[in-house]
UniProtKB/TrEMBL annotation:
Residues 208-329 form the GGDEF domain. GO terms for molecular function: diguanylate cyclase activity. It holds the Pfam family GAF. It comes from Actinomycetospora termitidis. This is GGDEF domain-containing protein. PANTHER family: DIGUANYLATE CYCLASE DGCM-RELATED, REGULATORY COMPONENTS OF SENSORY TRANSDUCTION SYSTEM. The lineage of its organism: Bacteria, Bacillati, Actinomycetota, Actinomycetes, Pseudonocardiales. Keywords: Nucleotidyltransferase, Transferase.
Length: 329
């Protein structure tokens, strides 16, 4: 394709409002106009590169597939250490270490093309990439202009979609009394369920890193039995205040009922363990010890599976903490 076709590209790819729809249109268009083993749009966040949308013939790429960002060819492309269009990766020494890492995952990449997708503030959101198992001819570099055009299109749609989502979230934060736990001011079970329903589609669209935490207080029953329910209410309020102070603004916190709490943290899997340790430390310091289970939200499996896994992990943690208290007594 040459520069005279740019207008046709714009006409064929009139940007939809949803970012995921634009990604699908772009990779499908590229798969037809520049056939390679795979075309994909990826998200880069929390140290990982994750596939959002793919048109794949040879690699088995699918939404949710990921690899550490430092082990990818895209990382060197984004930093400018390697070209955006590489007809033959064996001719670029800087790509050999990432290529060996990819080969270990049954990812022989002989030709590579990639370009950044940026967020409204200019930060890296992800990449538009193409991979092929055989080298391409020197004329392959002529596609760089097309890639720049399409990545700009995706960046524009991302900005519009992000602004729309942020506005909708601001409106949704003014939740009704029916969705708020009156004792703690957190979401109640109904509000939690509605938040998950609203955010499920958004999470799949943007591929934001997230983990679900399920929490169960260790001492509420004892407080109620020995000090009365007013003391138990203060115990719950102190728990909510501690959690609210220790978490990021915008990460939803809920009291699901009784001594059960839940949250979605916008962190990657590598940060989940340290987050749990920090929360348990601040809750212990506040005199509201809590068992916590955590699970990453998979792009393909979504919130439901993560909640089940986090719930199971929470009960495992509760048994371990109870055993430790018995041993230490």
């Amino acid at each position: 394709m040459n520069s005279s076709d740019d207008g046709a590209v714009i006409a064929d790819l009139a940007p939809p409002r949803a970012f995921d729809q634009a990604c699908r249109m772009v990779v499908d268009y590229l798969a037809e106009s520049v056939p390679l083993g795979a075309w994909a749009v990826t998200r880069v966040a929390a140290g990982w590169q994750t596939v959002l949308v793919a048109h794949d013939r040879d690699y088995g790429l699918a939404p949710g597939f990921g690899n550490r960002w430092t082990e990818t060819m895209c990382q060197t492309m984004v930093t400018g250490d390697t070209p955006r269009v590489v007809p033959d990766t064996s001719a670029v020494p800087q790509l050999q270490a990432p290529a060996e890492s990819a080969a270990a995952l049954d990812f022989p990449v002989a030709a590579y093309v990639g370009t950044p997708i940026v967020q409204p503030g200019g930060e890296l959101f992800g990449t538009l990439i193409g991979l092929n198992k055989q080298p391409m001819g020197d004329g392959f570099v002529s596609h760089e202009g097309l890639l720049d055009l399409l990545s700009s299109l995706l960046s524009s749609v991302l900005e519009a979609d992000t602004n729309a989502v942020d506005h909708a979230r601001e409106l949704e934060r003014a939740v009704s009394d029916a969705e708020t736990d009156q004792l703690t001011g957190l979401l109640n079970r109904r509000g939690w369920t509605r938040w998950l329903e609203r955010e499920e589609e958004r999470f799949r669209r943007f591929g934001d890193p997230a983990c679900v935490l399920m929490m169960d207080l260790d001492g509420l029953k004892e407080v109620n039995d020995t000090q009365g329910h007013d003391a138990g209410d203060r115990f719950l309020q102190r728990t909510a205040e501690t959690l609210r102070a220790a978490t990021r603004h915008g990460d939803p916190l809920a009291r699901l009922g009784g001594d059960e709490f839940a949250m979605v943290a916008t962190v990657g899997p590598d940060d989940a363990g340290p987050l749990v340790a920090r929360l348990q430390r601040v809750l212990d310091d506040a005199g509201t010890p809590c068992s916590i289970g955590v699970a990453p939200v998979g792009l393909a499996s979504g919130f439901s599976e993560a909640i089940s896994e986090a719930d199971a992990a929470m009960y495992t943690d509760k048994r371990a903490r109870k055993g430790a208290r018995v041993t230490g007594s």
